Amino acid sequence: MGATQDNSRAIVADAAGRDALWEHILREAEDILAREPAMASLALTFVLNRRSFEDAVARRCAARLGGAVTEDLLFDAFARALDADPAIGDAFRADIKAVVERDAACGRLIEPLLFFKGFHAIETHRLAHWLWTNGQTDLALYLQSRSSDAFQTDIHPAARFGRGIFLDHATGLVVGATAVVEDDVSILQSVTLGGTGKESGDRHPKVRRGVMIAAGAKILGNIEIGACSRVAAGSVVLHPVPRNSTVAGVPAKVVGTAGCAEPARDMDQFLNGLSYDSFSYSI
Description:
With about 280 residues, the chain is of the alpha/beta class.
């Protein structure tokens, strides 16, 4: 880990009363302005000319999503949601901290804000969910559609997410309407939290706190993924997963413990110490 990333992570943990996170991002934007003149417009438009971190996130997401519904209208929707529910802004902050803490490729706080579509996708969903629960279902569905186009994620607006969510890469993520994802969960690309067919009602997974879902995993049905468990890459999970365990295979089965206290933070996708036979495919 480089010195820049060490510094960003220290800032994330700063408990001072001032807005240390936003001040640090402003300094990172000023550094970009000084070093890369070609990036001046991006740094100015989405950071240096914004009044707060929440304002910057809203403007950046709105810019990436604008289309039939304009960027300004989407920005206004973000502003209304943030004003009505300050917990949305708190979630923005928890999510960007999660990226810096868990993504080895992220060296600065400004990187998720400007560039990472996984971060933009989860913040877009937070607006869509607020709209959905406040009766603006068509605009919420529009955001779901635009997020699918812009970020390659398809999250139903009714799905409920906690804070401290890390969507690593995010490409190919699909989340159904009755899914629940609790705090401090990490999800990699090509993951599905889906149903098992045409059943109605509560039909999607419930992912508890601290879970890591590795690339390509499919979790189907109204089943619980226990707290601080780990779902291995490419697994197809059809049955509940006990807390603090690792599941792997097609169909998935328990192959060991989670291997650490908080898999979502550890981000270890290797099944060290487990024999191949313990998670071989069923025919």
